[in-house]
Amino acid sequence: MNEADIPIDIHAGKLLEWLVSRRIVDKNWHLHIRNIRNKISNAITDMPAHDELLKLLSGAHINYFHCQRIVEILKTTEADSRNVFGRYGSQRMKDWQEILKMYEKDNLYLAEAAQILVRNISYEIPGIRKQIKHLEQLGEEADKKVQDLGRSERTVYGEYQQMCKQLGVSGTNLRQELIQKVFSELPGMFEQITKTVQQLKKPIELYAAFAGSDDCLPLLKHVATKGNTTVYEFIYGEPPLSVEEPTVTLELEKQETGTEQIDFGDSDGGAIDFGDDGAIDFGDAPIEVEAGEIDWGAPVDDGGAQQIDLNISLEESGIVVEEDGHAGGIAKGPDAYSVLDSPKHRERFMNDLLELEAFLRMRLYQLGGSDKVQLLSFTMMDSFPDHDEKSLTIMVADVDTVHGALTGELLQHLHQIKHSPEYVDILTANIEQKLSSIEKMKETVKRLQEKSANFKQQSIELKPTQTKIIDQTRTLQGQIERDISKRYKNRVVNLYGTNL
């Protein structure tokens, strides 16, 4: 096989070592290359206007092969300075010809070209590729976060709409709508529950028979028989003549907290008003105190002594004897609330309801059991022989209906608002926090979209740079391969491992 047909394969990453080992370049070549670089820096400050020259000089690094092309261009631009002996009088041409000679001494140009090639394939090109990939990855991550935030935003908004739906409000003015519902819907909700409780008379009687006492489940029994009366009527067993329920003060708009002062009214110095005639004013009419005798009725002249007539009827005396108990009283304060509205009695009502439910479920379990001997323990229920599993199931369902209505989310919220004015601020703040979270998500999405667009733009701008460096490296690779090939009788030279 002819030696000229045997290719020379050189790993591109070890090209410089290969050149040094073949004594083509000196191992200390880098000590001399600095002078050449300084010479090039001075020479490019004085260059003629030429498009190709501008393109060459705009490269990242000018090497020996660039200098060769610059000299070829200068032969045309500096042709007027050439003398009869073929030499150029132009200083530009002399400078670049000197640079070529410095490069060619000890093959410094080949060592530098090998170094540039190794740096490009080992660092520059992989670095740009890595940077482009990183920017694309950042853009994809930003897009993914945008999608995740979009899903979260829809979820939170769905939760907000669900909360508004449960509360029966539109969300336009949460505070105002909730306060209006306290007065417009809460009484009707209690009335509806009361109608359902009236269906529990039979289960209450069944439980009373089991307990052997009519005093069990007092609140539940009271509401089932008399309705949602005032606490006053439940306590005293008689309805009041009038009801003065505590005033509920709820501001439709949230007020800023300020310095509170006690209002003593318009009295001058807080003096007590004794009236014009010295009578103490107790409200309805002044009680006048006058000097004189007490009128004991018609006097009887019996030796100059007065006698008291004790035969006066109650009607004539004006004294009214009230009935026993509290009939004709006024329900004030907590006693003026209805049983289901009073926080204290509402809790007792719930306890009665749960107690009845537990009994019915246990009785239903025993009726459904296979051990019929258990039925003998319920001898006190012989007065209710008509109850069975079906009727008990209906009773349990009725109890569950009352329990569900009384523990409904809307009713509990409205009840809390009525008895704790601060609760409306807490509730509206929790709901409006959803909207605040959505706004923050939207702002974050906007920033992420801007970042994503920025990352993608940087990646796009780097790709032409990457392409340019790859093209320059391929060109340099071919120039080195041809140069080495001339040194070995034009054998084919392959620089492998460039990954271009």
Structure report:
The chain is mostly helical. The chain contains 16 helices and four strands. The strands form two sheets. A two-stranded parallel sheet has the order 1-4. Helix 6 packs antiparallel against helix 16. The longest helix has about 70 residues.
Topology, please?
Elements: E1 8-11, H1 15-21, H2 30-43, H3 51-57, H4 64-77, H5 91-104, H6 108-167, H7 174-184, H8 186-197, H9 201-211, H10 218-226, H11 231-236, E2 242-244, H12 314-317, E3 330-332, H13 343-368, H14 389-406, H15 409-419, H16 422-487, E4 493-496
Parallel strand pairs: 1-4, 2-3
Helix pairs in contact: 2-5, 4-5, 6-16, 7-15, 8-14, 13-14
In short:
This protein has helices spanning 15-21, 30-43, 51-57, 64-77, 91-104, 108-167, 174-184, 186-197, 201-211, 218-226, 231-236, 314-317, 343-368, 389-406, 409-419, 422-487; strands at 8-11, 242-244, 330-332, 493-496. The protein is mainly alpha-helical and 500 residues long. Mean pLDDT is 80; it is low at 256-310, 312-327 and 372-377.
Structure keywords:
500 residues; mainly alpha; two-stranded parallel sheet; two-stranded parallel ribbon
Summing up helix and strand content along with how strands pair, one would put the structural category as mainly alpha
Q: Give me the side-by-side strand order of the main sheet.
A: 1-4
Unreliable spans are 256-310, 312-327, 372-377
The H/E string reads: EHHHHHHHHHHHEHEHHHHE
Q: What's the total number of strands?
A: 4
Helix content: 55-70%
Mean pLDDT: 80
